[in-house]
Each structure stands twice: as C-alpha cells, then as structure tokens.
C-alpha cells in the first residue's frame, strides 16, 4: 500500500471514530455506558417524555422527566436529557411507566436508563 493510500485510510478511520463518539454524546449512550458501570441501581416513574429530534438508525432519542426511587425508598425528581431507545420499545417509555435507571453516586442529578446493555 502506498504512503498516500495509508494516509487516506487513516484519515477515514479517524473520521469514523470521531463520528461514533459524537453519536454517543448526542444520543446519551456515552453517559448511559458510564453509569452502567459505576451507577447505583434505582427505579424511576416516567412523568413526561419529549422528542429531542435526534434519531440513530431510525431509533429515537427522547428526553424524560422522572421520579426516581432509591433502594432506601427516598424519591426525587430528575431529568434525563437524552436516551436512545428502540422504536420497538416506545410503548414501554410512556408517562406512568416504571423503568430501571442508574444514578451517579457523586451527582444524583445524573440519571440514565438502565434498559439496555450498550456494547
């Protein structure tokens, strides 16, 4: 492979990796991945949902206001700004539904869905 071909291939690879990182941030997947490894398990009742206008592979990214219930029974309100959900799971994410979440132990205002395992 010629020098220019290698440089072009590396440039394309770098662009793809940067694009994937941007999608993770735009979709909320990066935060969900982080909280799945370090977050505290809790449940949350969905109070309100909204469309963010973002889709990834035709799956919507939604925002939610939730009422979080910790293991000790205490509750508080939180906002999940972005969560990527499957379009097949839209019925599961409606006001009144209870979903599994993860809470940042250092900042309980940071909450992410624990509905999916991201790879």
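^ Assign residues to that structure.
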């Amino acid at each position: 492979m010629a020098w220019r071909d290698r440089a072009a291939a590396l440039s394309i690879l770098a662009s793809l990796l940067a694009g994937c990182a941007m999608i993770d941030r735009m979709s909320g997947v990066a935060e969900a991945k982080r909280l799945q490894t370090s977050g505290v398990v809790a449940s949350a009742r969905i109070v309100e949902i909204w469309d963010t206008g973002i889709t990834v592979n035709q799956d919507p990214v939604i925002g939610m206001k939730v009422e979080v219930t910790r293991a000790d029974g205490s509750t508080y309100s939180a906002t999940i700004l972005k969560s990527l959900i499957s379009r097949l799971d839209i019925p599961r994410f409606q006001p009144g539904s209870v979903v599994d979440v993860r809470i940042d132990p250092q900042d309980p205002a940071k909450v992410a869905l624990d509905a999916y395992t991201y790879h």
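Residues 13-25 have pLDDT under 50 and may be disordered.
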